[in-house]
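Dear colleagues,

As part of the handover before I leave the project, I'm documenting each prediction I ran so the next person doesn't have to rerun anything. This entry is a single chain, and its sequence is reproduced below.
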Amino acid sequence: MALAPPPDLSDIAVPAPHAIALVGLMGMLLGEKLWPMGKRLVSHWLT
């Protein structure tokens, strides 16, 4: 039984260019960090 060779990953169509995907990932990471800081800041203002 012979195994098929792996597909060439450079031929896979991506929905967004790599630079746009990286910007989106960086935005998600920044949002994860900024959300708790913003909540603390707002709660400090309200108390």
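The helical segments are 18-46. The mean pLDDT is 81.

All the best with the project,
I.
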